[in-house]
Design a protein that fits this description.
single chain; 2 helices; Class I and II aminotransferase; 0% strand; mainly alpha; PyrdxlP-dep_Trfase_small; transaminase activity; aminotransferase
Length: 56
C-alpha cells in the first residue's frame, strides 16, 4: 500500500546493501576480542535472559 498521492507504478524498488565501507573501530575491537577468545558461542546477557524469561 503506497502513501497517499504516490503511484506504485512510479516507484523503482531499491535497497541499500553496500558493504564497501570500513566498520567502526568499536565493532572491529569487539569482533577481534571474540576471535581472540576462541569461544564462538552465542552468549546471552543477564538482561536478555531476564527479559526473555521473567520470573515473578
Amino acid at each position: 500500500m503506497a502513501p497517499k498521492g504516490i503511484n506504485l507504478g512510479d516507484i523503482i524498488p531499491m535497497w541499500i546493501a553496500d558493504m564497501d565501507f570500513k566498520a567502526p573501530p568499536n565493532v572491529i575491537k569487539a569482533l577481534q576480542e571474540k576471535i581472540d577468545s576462541q569461544m564462538y558461542t552465542n552468549q546471552l546477557s543477564d538482561y536478555a535472559v531476564k527479559k526473555t524469561y521473567p520470573i515473578g
